């Protein structure tokens, strides 16, 4: 009888533990995130997912890749997502269209441009003057990569529309293939294509647009003002998890980071992942914390203004909320 009682008590204890586990799972708050593209450039985000940092904050993140800034912002504005990961310039464009519910930047993920200048020929002592009179395969007009590209060229005394032959009519997804097929003597490429081209001998990285342009809020997390007002705790937990991931990326060797994000890049070789992560870490493209700084915001607008795409400058305090980042960093 005594043995039966003990067994009964054990069964009750086990059921309580299991029910507690299921309850904990049910308590996870679902957050829908739309990312502008799938990129190693966003490594901290995938680390937060793979290492369970969001779950530890009580969040279940549903990630969708929306492929393009316009589509990402449309998804957010139409309530197809709660949070968007996209270039901060999109929040400015929405605001300038007279939105009654502006999109607010609350956490920054990357702080440099993510593109590199790739030369078809190997150049030992590269100078930006080497671009003069050459054929340059650039990015889409009006897009952030192209605006940064032109900003850097002008910084080095090069008029992108007079001093070289600038090609801008190739679709973003076809730029690598166009260069590989013989178009252009120089090309502006994202990773991992720049590293892959180096490995295959198709091209050679000679400069980084991210290093040359300086720190900008190149990619940030944002949400509609109304959503943030109603879900402050969710935004805080999300930012806490992100900050932990940002720190983890810099604390761990690139091999470990590559292992952590590999499930999100099944078609990319491990060695390529490691090299790309190394390159982005070396130039501090991954922001080590989620705080969007005012100087970064102003430089972003300088670049957009220089490209002729900015109707009017928007004050930092209007579209940036640093409360959640500051709290996450102070814990």
From TrEMBL:
Q: Where in the cell is it found?
A: Periplasm
Give the signal peptide, or none: 1-23
One Pfam annotation, family name? NMT1_2
- Keywords carried by this UniProt record: Signal
PROSITE patterns per the UniProt record, alphabetical = PROKAR_LIPOPROTEIN (PS51257)
Superkingdom per UniProt: Bacteria
What stretches pass through the bilayer? Answer: none
User: Which cellular component, as a GO term, is one annotated location?
Assistant: periplasmic space
SUPFAM superfamilies in the record, alphabetically? Periplasmic binding protein-like II (SSF53850)
Annotated family: Belongs to the bacterial solute-binding protein SsuA/TauA family.
Q: What is this protein called?
A: ABC transporter substrate-binding protein
Q: Which organism is it from?
A: Caldalkalibacillus thermarum (strain TA2.A1)
Q: Please spell out the taxonomic lineage of the organism that makes this protein.
A: Bacteria, Bacillati, Bacillota, Bacilli, Bacillales
